[in-house]
Amino acid sequence: MSVIEHWIGGRAVTGKSVRTAPVHDPATGRQRHEVLLATPEDAALAVEAAQAAYEGWSQTSLMRRARVLFAFRELVDREAGRIAELITAEHGKVLSDALGEVRRGLEVVEFACGIPTLLKGDYSDQVSTGVDTWSFREPLGVCVGITPFNFPAMVPMWMFPVAIACGNTFVLKPSERVPSASMLLAELWREAGLPDGVFNVLHGDAVAVDALIDAPEVAAVSFVGSTPVARHVHERASSAGKRVQALGGAKNHAVVLPDADLDFAADHLAAAAYGSAGERCMAISAAVAVGSEADRIVEAVAGRARAVRVGPGTDPGSEMGPVVTRQARERISTLIGTGADQGGKLVVDGRDHVVPGHEEGFFLGPTLIDHVRRDMDVYREEIFGPVLCVVRADDVDEAIALINANPYGNGTAVFTSGGEAARRFQRGVHVGMVGINVPVPVPMAFHSFGGWKASLFGDRHVHGPEGVGFYTRAKVVTARWPRSHGLSGESRKASFDFPNDA
Q1: Alpha-carbon distance 218 to 142, whole Å?
Q2: Catalytic: which of 143, 166, 281, 389?
Q3: Tell me, what's the pLDDT at 239?
Q4: What does the pLDDT read at residue 499?
Q5: What stretch of H or E contains 411?
Q6: What's the predicted TM-score (pTM) here?
Q7: CA atoms within 13 A on the CB side of 293
Q8: 143 is catalytic
Q9: pLDDT at 488 over 70
Q10: DSSP for 34-67?
Q11: Percent of the chain clearing pLDDT 70 (strictly above)
Q12: Beta pairing, strands 408-409 & 452-453
């Protein structure tokens, strides 16, 4: 069985790793590979390689950096199908969804290609007599990205293109469940002409995460994952004086008002809840059915849920693949049962779904639970599976209050044909990303991605302008160039007063 190694200093290395983890095909349940789990010594080696490469890369001209980014963009575009196949093989999502993930990641690469413009500073002439002031942004140093299993290409590409374009070096710690896409991306960086050590991949578990966070040379840490781990990463890294952006979990609500286009809303709710088997931090996991049309909304979504074609991601006819592990399937199944036990109405039950020929795969069918209350486990917990809970509300204000009472604040949406209600909703909800008749409001790469409350620890969102701000720090220069001859004594005189604009 093949062993997936680390990528350090421009090549695959074994390092000191002696522990490994299995990498499965979720559609069959069979093990595909083993992946090395890094030791603290391996983490130190990766950081050392990044630190050694930093001086040269940070001094590389903006145009040279941009050319490498452009070359990388062309290579990822060329190999998009191959990357998508690796994602499907290890995550389980359908190929079309995996390819869409790569395309969305490419948008951030394309954004980062504009780094000469993105890093333009400001200049103020003659702020005082003979004095000018200007500002510019410099890279931080070695940056670390810790990414989840659900987007093996896109989430890392939210981070490292911007970090590298800004002049930093990078160590990526991907999920050990889906390691192969990161290794291919590393090879493409080398082919694009990126100097060795600027981009590194370290595989591992909590041992690797803590070792990277604790490394004194690491200046910044980006994380996407569950809220408990995001909180841990933020606390540990920030206490060491590092810059941190840690994106946590979510419980995304979609509100359906009585004036919404019912068929449109049902179609998009089903896609947002069951796409990628619900394993998205922006998946809709709670539908808020408002007013007199609630029964019709539930009936319409139930019809869509029963019609979803579940199968292996490599089958062109599949709309939804398996969940990532057997343990995930068991946990989700338990939560569905608990939801029914606690009073929810199980309208569509996907626990016993079997895909012929793939009986050992980690499959669940779409599930719909109606009459869910806020105190139920299926509402309080982030299920991260193909489960949609329906909560009922009398009006849009009650729906807004319901969302604001939730500890998460990642994404939300409203389906309506009324502008007044939409405007009241977008201004009233305490959530970072809002969709109006758009159930999964992931912003384009030239805006920034991130939630509020327990969905984000840190003050900077990912990619876009805030990403550039996160991976750089500002420097302000105030300068005077006095003439050595010909000035009066008054013009050359120093003052003990606080500087002013005289």
Answers
A1: 5
A2: 281
A3: 97
A4: 75
A5: strand 411-415
A6: 0.95
A7: 21
A8: no
A9: no
A10: EEEE--HHHHHHHHHHHHHHHHHHHTS-HHHHHH
A11: 98
A12: antiparallel
Structure tokens at 179: 């390691």
Stated length of the chain: 502
pLDDT digits (tens, 9 = 90+) for 389-432: 999 999 999 999 999 999 999 999 999 999 999 999 999 999 99
DSSP structure string for 375-397: TSHHHHS---SSEEEEEEESSHH
User: How far apart, in whole angstroms, are the C-alpha atoms of residue 218 and residue 324?
Assistant: 31
Token digits for 128? 């005082």
Residue holding tokens 């909304």?
A: 297
Q: What are the pLDDT digits (tens) for 447-463?
A: 999 999 999 999 899 99
CA contacts within 13 A on the Cβ side of 351: 15
Which has the closest alpha carbon to 474: 58, 143, 136? 136
Which residue is associated with the tokens 């569905």? 336
Tokens 């990277």 locate to 212
Spell 432-467 as b/e; 16+ CB within 10 A means b.
Answer: bbbbeebbbbbbebeebbbbebbbbbbebbbbbebb
Helical H segments across 308-410, by residue range: 326-341, 377-380, 396-405
